[in-house]
């Protein structure tokens, strides 16, 4: 297969972002769109210049020119549409959550494997160079054990009127499933699945639907993670922070699609050199089209190595330095680049350039399992 021909099912708000992202790809060719709403089909044609549109998935799936379908409808449809696509022999890229239950996700995995089809899911943060930096420093164990992480997500709801499907559990699965899975996946990636977790749902006083959730997860390595999501702000005033604290470093990411990472750390010359050299170089080439800049600030200098004690453990450091990594393009460009990279990575697996995509439906199932723990539901 020379090129990978893709079609998007679901041409709503996010379908539009996906089409803009894929249109710029040199590895995946967007050739069709599908929506049950005829207005969305007209808009898609106008915006993309692509004439091939379908008003039902059945019609789209009978098109032999399409190799890959991108499922971007509302969450309650992902499983059914995914099953149809896989049964008809198409590879599939799922918008999150991909299914509303881990059991349904397991069925999608089984079906894709039995038909030797490739699948992935749009966990965009996995593509972000700043989360990649956190992954590298976690794996290299430079700063000791992770002690704590905390997500503070003050998200916008000014585009979510009370009748929007987002508030309807039957359609979205609720905040833990619809949105929480992004962050469960990131933490699973950084330190594995939690051994236990539980959460609370806080309904809006006036309307009764849940607009805030708060949860805690305990991990094998001793880390305790808090997750808070509140869909309560206007877009112009939203604010997302993700803190990951190690024995010898405080790290903080800013933004739902983060563009800035600070690492305030106790370092030795070797670690300092790595953070300013090899790690920066790797991060700069992690997401095509998105560069990373670094600034440092010396907070303390102990010239000769000094010994410190924390939690009864001794370690040595020569300096405390604040490293600030910043992406050099705006968050919308980063967002599109992350979506595009996920789809291109799946296309590489479809073209047998690699066996598995970086993000698999097993990751989607693991994230759904943590969401179920937060909901207090049996995983089954
Ligand atoms: N990965 C991310 O960062 C990210 C961000 C936002 C949204 N999303 C996900 O994208 C998906 C879509 O969200 P949205 O905000 O675009 O929703 P939306 O309501 O704006 O769009 C959904 C579209 O799907 C169409 N649709 C519904 N049923 C269909 C069917 N059977 N066949 C074809 N089309 C159908 C609707 O007509 C609508 O146009 C959701 O799963 C959401 O969680 C992902």
Characterise the protein shown here.
With 380 residues, the protein is α/β, with parallel strands linked by helices. The protein has 2 domains: 4-123, NAD(P)-binding Rossmann-like Domain (Rossmann fold, 3-Layer(aba) Sandwich), CATH 3.40.50.720; 126-334, Dihydrodipicolinate Reductase, domain 2 (2-Layer Sandwich), CATH 3.30.360.10. It is 36% helix and 32% strand. The protein has 12 helices and 15 strands. It has helices at residues 13-23, 38-48, 57-61, 75-87, 102-114, 129-140, 169-172, 175-191, 269-276, 278-284, 331-350, 361-375, and strands at 4-9, 28-34, 53-54, 68-71, 91-94, 119-121, 146-156, 196-203, 210-218, 224-233, 239-246, 249-254, 260-267, 292-310, 313-327. A hairpin with a 6-residue loop joins β8 and β9. The protein is globular and about 70 Å long. 43% of the residues are buried. Residues 9-15, 34-37, 40, 57, 72-75, 77, 95-96, 122, 124, 178 line the site of nicotinamide-adenine-dinucleotide.
Strand tally is: 15
State the order of secondary-structure elements, H for helix, E for strand. Answer: EHEHEHEHEHEHEHHEEEEEEHHEEHH
- Structural category: alpha/beta
- How is the quaternary structure best described? single chain
Largest sheet: 9 strands, mixed
Shape: globular
Please give the CATH architecture of the largest domain. Answer: 2-Layer Sandwich
User: How many angstroms does the end-to-end distance come to?
Assistant: 39 Å
CATH homology superfamily name of the largest domain? Dihydrodipicolinate Reductase, domain 2
- The figure for the number of domains is 2
